[in-house]
């Protein structure tokens, strides 16, 4: 009974954290026209409001491991959430420069959560880690969906500043939930088991394969999120409104994909089979857009499921593959830093390819190639051997 109660408390806490880790990034985009006019913000600076957090994911992730060593992963997450709450609440009420600084701090706060949540789940959920990670990751999609849907109607009633400030509300709830959890738990020790190797994560080949898998998945997700409406409008003849709705469906179906990860891992022989399958589905999605854009509803649903399942699997592997939670802290930082560096570059490079070729087909086939790289990386990224464990003699 005590274990069930502890698991339930963990689920509540990670769901509240998950609800707060995407809204402050994605829901600022619908407010850009209003805030750009009000603050006389140039288009390049407005673009930083969505790209800065992604760059923080890549640059700050290694520093989160240092913070977690000093404060423990529970303490690091608490500090990250407090920073995120203050930055999200205060950034709308200053000028353009402080708005951008606040957005960078939003990215830093979210980065802390990105890195340490899988470590905490591995430590506290045990064998239930895949299930808890699926629920946690699905909360990302729910949170960004609620925030994106509510921010524009709120802006019409209370202005863009007030609407942007409401993005801090879920974070404040997460801060309270995590503070209660920290008080209920005694300590945050991450004890290194006797005989466990302490070699650098960068020396582990499987860590790099996992980083490659995660990076390709993240790049494909952010590229699709950035360019799918434009591609559907140009190749399938959709209106701007319909293309935007298609993107919303793409994100919403992703929630089902994240929840399906534990079942997929059971049915598809673990992380290896699931990774190969999800990489293959990415190939089908982009090939379908290139070859049969008229079937876009099918591709949007398939792609939505795939992106949710892919990120869910990536985070689950980060949680379950390290030899212990202490090693997992460094693995999570390394994989996410490398992965998000790739993700940050992807939409820009693909946009340049489209501008140079005038064709979305070229972009789609490059993405098919990235999906194929996921398939190649999956057997090592999803292997059964714990990363950091001694090699078998």
From TrEMBL:
<feature type="transmembrane region" description="Helical">
    <location>
        <begin position="132"/>
        <end position="152"/>
    </location>
</feature>
<keyword id="KW-0472">Membrane</keyword>
<dbReference type="InterPro" id="IPR011701">
    <property type="entry name" value="MFS"/>
</dbReference>
<dbReference type="InterPro" id="IPR052524">
    <property type="entry name" value="MFS_Cyanate_Porter"/>
</dbReference>
<feature type="transmembrane region" description="Helical">
    <location>
        <begin position="75"/>
        <end position="93"/>
    </location>
</feature>
<feature type="transmembrane region" description="Helical">
    <location>
        <begin position="158"/>
        <end position="180"/>
    </location>
</feature>
<protein>
    <submittedName>
        <fullName>MFS transporter</fullName>
    </submittedName>
</protein>
<keyword id="KW-0812">Transmembrane</keyword>
<feature type="transmembrane region" description="Helical">
    <location>
        <begin position="248"/>
        <end position="268"/>
    </location>
</feature>
<feature type="transmembrane region" description="Helical">
    <location>
        <begin position="43"/>
        <end position="68"/>
    </location>
</feature>
<dbReference type="InterPro" id="IPR036259">
    <property type="entry name" value="MFS_trans_sf"/>
</dbReference>
<feature type="transmembrane region" description="Helical">
    <location>
        <begin position="359"/>
        <end position="378"/>
    </location>
</feature>
<feature type="transmembrane region" description="Helical">
    <location>
        <begin position="275"/>
        <end position="292"/>
    </location>
</feature>
<dbReference type="Pfam" id="PF07690">
    <property type="entry name" value="MFS_1"/>
</dbReference>
<feature type="transmembrane region" description="Helical">
    <location>
        <begin position="207"/>
        <end position="228"/>
    </location>
</feature>
<keyword id="KW-1133">Transmembrane helix</keyword>
<feature type="transmembrane region" description="Helical">
    <location>
        <begin position="298"/>
        <end position="319"/>
    </location>
</feature>
<feature type="transmembrane region" description="Helical">
    <location>
        <begin position="99"/>
        <end position="120"/>
    </location>
</feature>
<feature type="transmembrane region" description="Helical">
    <location>
        <begin position="331"/>
        <end position="353"/>
    </location>
</feature>
């Amino acid at each position: 009974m005590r274990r069930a109660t502890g698991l339930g408390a963990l689920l509540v806490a990670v769901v509240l954290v998950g609800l707060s880790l995407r809204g402050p990034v994605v829901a600022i985009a619908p407010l850009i026209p209003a805030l750009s006019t009000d603050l006389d913000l140039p288009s390049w600076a407005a673009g930083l409001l969505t790209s800065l957090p992604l760059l923080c994911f890549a640059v700050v992730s290694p520093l989160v491991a240092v913070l977690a060593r000093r404060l423990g992963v529970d303490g690091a997450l608490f500090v990250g959430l407090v920073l995120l709450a203050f930055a999200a609440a205060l950034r709308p009420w200053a000028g353009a420069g402080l708005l951008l600084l606040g957005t960078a701090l939003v990215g830093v706060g979210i980065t802390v959560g990105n890195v340490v949540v899988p470590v905490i789940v591995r430590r506290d959920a045990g064998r239930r880690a895949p299930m808890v990670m699926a629920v946690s990751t699905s909360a990302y999609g729910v949170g960004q969906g609620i925030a994106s849907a509510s921010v524009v109607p709120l802006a019409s009633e209370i202005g863009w500043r007030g609407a942007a400030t409401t993005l801090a509300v879920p974070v404040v709830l997460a801060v309270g939930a995590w503070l209660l959890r920290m008080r209920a738990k005694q300590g945050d020790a991450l004890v290194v088991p006797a005989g466990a190797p302490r070699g650098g994560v960068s020396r582990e080949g499987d860590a790099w394969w996992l980083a490659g898998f995660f990076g390709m998945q993240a790049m494909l997700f952010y590229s699709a999120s950035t360019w799918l409406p434009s591609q559907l409008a140009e190749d399938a003849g959709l209106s701007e409104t319909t293309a935007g709705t298609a993107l919303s469906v793409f994100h919403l179906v992703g929630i089902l994909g994240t929840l399906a990860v534990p079942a997929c891992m059971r049915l598809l022989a673990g992380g290896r089979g699931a990774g190969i399958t999800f990489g293959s589905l990415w190939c089908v999605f982009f090939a379908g857009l290139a070859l049969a854009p008229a079937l876009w509803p099918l591709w949007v649903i398939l792609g939505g499921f795939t992106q949710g399942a892919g990120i869910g699997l990536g985070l689950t592997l980060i949680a379950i593959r390290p030899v212990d939670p202490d090693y997992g802290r460094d693995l999570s930082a390394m994989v996410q830093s490398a992965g998000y560096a790739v993700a940050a570059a992807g939409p820009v490079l693909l946009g340049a390819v489209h501008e140079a070729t005038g064709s979305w087909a070229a972009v789609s086939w490059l993405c098919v190639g990235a999906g194929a790289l996921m398939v190649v990386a999956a057997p090592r990224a999803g292997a059964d051997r714990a990363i950091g464990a001694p090699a078998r003699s």
